[in-house]
Sequence to fold (388 residues):
Amino acid sequence: MNISCSAEQKFFEIPYEGEAVVAGFWSPELGLCSQSVLLKWKEGKVNSLQPLDHLESYPKTTLLWDSYFLLPGWIDAHVHLALDSLDFYQCLENWAQPFLIEENIKGFLQHYLEMGIVAIRDGGDLPGFSWRAKKKVKEGVWSGPRVISVHEAVNRAGMYGRFLGRGFKDLLEWREKEIDFFGQGIDQLKVVVTGLIKFDDFQGVGPTQWTVEELGEVVEAAHKRGIPVMAHASGEEGISVAITAGVDSIEHGYYMKTGQLERMKEKGIAWVPTVAPIGNLLKYPTDRYSSHEIDTLKRILEVQLTKIREAYHLKVRLGVGTDAGAYRVPHAQSFYDEMDWMVQAGIPKLEVYRMATHENAQILGSPELGRLDVGTPMSLLQLVSDLR
Fold:
């Protein structure tokens, strides 16, 4: 079995029973321990964590991980495995070459583990690449993090989201194909509520695709099957529709309003604000955008960070998701950008760690993830260089 060592960007192969000295640990359950600890595991699961005196001696079989801290593995709550973060349109053309896409995805999945990311939630693609990747990881054919997949999204035919799902022209067509849609297999349902934000028009957002009544019926169809619903939504109108319809998480959520955050708090709706697709365009500049677009991006970023800080103080559930695969949002590496953006928004680093582990596990519907406690599988943990 393996444990991720994000400090070295690789995995360590470890026995199913063993012990190691670590510099300390952190978890939402146990808090922070910044002194040396003896970690023991049996049958691949944590058995004990005991503080050590620096003068103690250890058996020769004890692994010395004393330059690393032990943490729960990270979880990225929003990725697109079928996109490459380099060129959206060229990547879509490459979808005609499934072997090429699958080779890319295999590399992405391995890099996630190398970077300490043990689970991801994929936002879908029409050909089903992410769903097949999920199955191959689960069957042990590919190595990689656990993949929670929406398979394909529910979007309005002829509107934004053609690469995410087949598209439904109206609610009648959705009703006709509902059973088939769920029958193909999904972990969560993703509905595209609005189009994209506009880089050249501050507060400009693509049109809302569903009424509250329409979206409410789609959400109810998922909920009666025990399936959570994530909603791609930005702009005041689209976010309000998603909240009223009872979705479980708002993805992106640009131009969020204070009253909407308060309603989300009341209803327990999580927000995954995906800062990297905007912030990284400024952090890693290119000549792709005009000076007007750059100024607009700066305004969008400032507003998004301000609302994230407000959401945190209002105690709205916040998740950490990158939208990896989007331009300038590379798989795995961008997770660290996203955490940095959350810290820049004014959230304490250990709180961001809690969101990136425990809260993301709840958003994925997998509470066994994002933990470090007795009984936690070693494969769901990681070793980091420091906690500062």
